[in-house]
Amino acid sequence: MRLSVLKETRDAEAGRWTALFVWGIVFLLASPFVSQCDGRAFRLISVEAEAEGVNDESYKLAVSRAQQTAVEQALGLLIPRSRIEANRQALLDAILYHAEQYTATSEITFTFRRDRDLSNIDDIGSSIVGARYHVDMGALENKLDEVGLLGESEPVATVIFALDCEVDGVVFDATAAREIFVRELAANAFKLLDSEEIRSTLHGTRSEGTEQEDWAFEVGKEFAVDYVLLVKGSGLAQEKSVLLTKTLYPCDTTLTARVFDLRTRKISDSEEFSGKSEAETLSVAAADGFSNAADFIARTLFPRVRTAWRERYWKGNTIQIDLSEVNYASCHKLLRELRSLSWVNSARRVKLVDDTAVLSVTVRDDSAGLANTMIHLPGISMELVEVSATKIVAKTKPPKRILPVRKD
């Protein structure tokens, strides 16, 4: 009897250990799949995508675009948007064209097929899908690290720089001052655009006597830069002085620097420095004076402009756009064009009811700059009604209704 009880006890104990062992194996096998989607290694992202047409191929294309959009949004959580834009082709080839490799599970939340707009003969309707994807953040980090794009990037503004100096009305080549400006621009994360074409354009345009501000904005727009830095120097020779056996030539020098912001079309900042220097020759005295002024201006002006640039780059301004006389197709096209601009952080539709829509756009610019861009977007005809600091009211001009002529 006692042996029978002991045997049953040993069998029960062995059964419990066997069960624990089996459950342990199951847990070890299952745990990777649990940890993948618990919000640490994976991130759930909801997206919406559209493709032209209403057939099955259009639906599949919309799903594929949604998958790529989800992966691109995940990339935006790992690296700055500027780095994504600057390396878009590399990211397309390495990651976005293979988006299925970075998504674990997906769920189609809605599908919608928009019929064609009869007022536009080019419109063939569209397939729209909403989806949720679990994006593998760990795999994306590994791939970004592999292609050398994981590190944080410093926002860089492009600049055209022109320095004009004269002493007693005669052109003076302030080489040392120029070198100081170039060095400090690089130290403050500005990219200087300089080429024979730019130098000839600067010289040729200024010789025509155009108003300086208009000229600066035209040149900046032509070469697609963020800022134009214009520095004007003047020197005035004074009576020479004799110190023991030395004859010194004093020179009063003044440098005035102005920064033209191409986004706002305004002078964003300026700095001036005046002083007196003297040396055994007038040229050396003038050179020293311009160099001292350049050093002061570069160390005070450039950090201010750099700080303003970074704040605008990372934060941006959120502007509400109220549209009237708009339909789904024109609203979607406007959003697509805005998102393609490098200085637009985000653009989304808040509301679309009947023929009115509300958009929310975050830009590294002010509302006037955004409004000026909107009315010049290709393929979109728009009329501004009101522009304030945080709001733009506009109405779109619908395309002409083109219908085939009925034959009797």
List the helices and strands and how they pair.
Blueprint: H1 2-36, E1 42-52, H2 56-78, H3 81-86, H4 88-94, E2 103-114, E3 126-136, H5 137-146, E4 157-167, E5 170-172, H6 175-187, E6 190-192, H7 196-206, H8 212-222, E7 227-237, E8 241-243, E9 246-261, E10 266-279, H9 282-314, E11 317-324, H10 328-339, E12 344-353, E13 356-363, H11 367-374, E14 382-387, E15 391-396
Parallel strand pairs: 4-6, 4-7, 11-15
Antiparallel strand pairs: 1-3, 2-3, 4-5, 7-9, 8-9, 9-10, 11-13, 12-13, 14-15
Fold and architecture overview:
The protein is of the alpha+beta class and 408 residues long. 41% of the residues lie in helices and 33% in strands. The strands form three sheets. Strands 4, 5, 6, 7, 8, 9 and 10 form a seven-stranded mixed beta sheet that branches. Helix 6 (175-187) packs parallel to helix 9. The longest helix is centred in the N-terminal third of the chain and has 35 residues, at 2-36. The chain is elongated and about 95 Å long.
Task: Summarize the entry for a quick read.
Helix content is 41%, strand content 33%. It is an alpha+beta fold. The protein is elongated.
